[in-house]
Specification:
Mean pLDDT: 96
Number of helices: 2
Keywords: Metal-binding
Organism: Gluconobacter kondonii
Protein name: Copper chaperone CopZ
Pfam family, one: HMA
Length: 70
């Protein structure tokens, strides 16, 4: 089943940052699309909930070097 999650992301300062994060999220197995915007700082991710969880996606954001804001 396809689900959608949007994270508020802090720490991105340029288009290179958002591109780096979008690329990392797009490579995660189960992610069908990832759209990262600099302003506002957010990541909208469409994913297969049987292959990946929102918590795992949050860890990807953090591993790239950004913070997810609650």
């Amino acid at each position: 089943m396809v689900s959608m999650v949007t994270f508020k992301v802090d720490g991105m300062s340029c288009n290179g940052c958002s591109g780096k994060l979008q690329s990392a999220l797009s490579k995660v197995p189960g992610v069908s699309s990832a759209e990262v915007t600099l302003d506002p700082g957010q990541a909208a991710i469409q994913y297969d909930e049987q292959k990946v969880t929102p918590v795992a996606l949050q860890h990807v954001v953090e591993d790239v070097g950004f913070d997810v804001i609650a």
